[in-house]
């Protein structure tokens, strides 16, 4: 792969980033851990992973003094940033899961899955599911009939602007599973657990942002 493929993965003790690092390597990237403001300031592109509760994730970012550096990277330097699972949700205004404001980079909110008793759909939404493309995009330029990604989440993203939505997924209701605006991207599923489809998405992210 002839590209500038260094990518910084934010380590803020709210994600198990080992599998993310390994999948990025398989996708042709050169991942490095970034856990300080200085390391974020030196990043050329960023992955913001995350698992667990919304407020815990935001608290960890604040505790480590990473929020200002992340805001500068995303909104001032405008380098490519992708949020994964909780990381995608942290890019939104806030979540019904907690009381802390999110990073607020995207005009989007995070809402809890709520189903009628007769629907009998378990929460969290966990396991393999498909995505439906909503517009042309560099992350998922094509979708094969059997493309599946691995999800684990109890809350779902709802974008204010449909133009920000790359793909939707159905689990009782449709929800926004991939979004993008400019240099910002988010995926609700875990590409690092989604085998070749997840690896392809990360490869596409690296390839698309080579000149960023």
TrEMBL record:
Q: Where is the active site?
A: 85 (nucleophile), 190, 192
Residue span, Glutamine amidotransferase domain: 9-207
Q: Which PROSITE patterns match?
A: GATASE_TYPE_1
List the CDD domains: GATase1_IGP_Synthase
InterPro entries assigned to the protein according to its UniProt record, in alphabetical order: Class_I_gatase-like, GATASE, Imidazole-glycPsynth_HisH
- MF annotations from Gene Ontology: glycosyltransferase activity
Pathway linked to the protein:
Amino-acid biosynthesis; L-histidine biosynthesis; L-histidine from 5-phospho-alpha-D-ribose 1-diphosphate: step 5/9
Q: How does it assemble?
A: Heterodimer of HisH and HisF.
Protein name per the record: Imidazole glycerol phosphate synthase subunit HisH
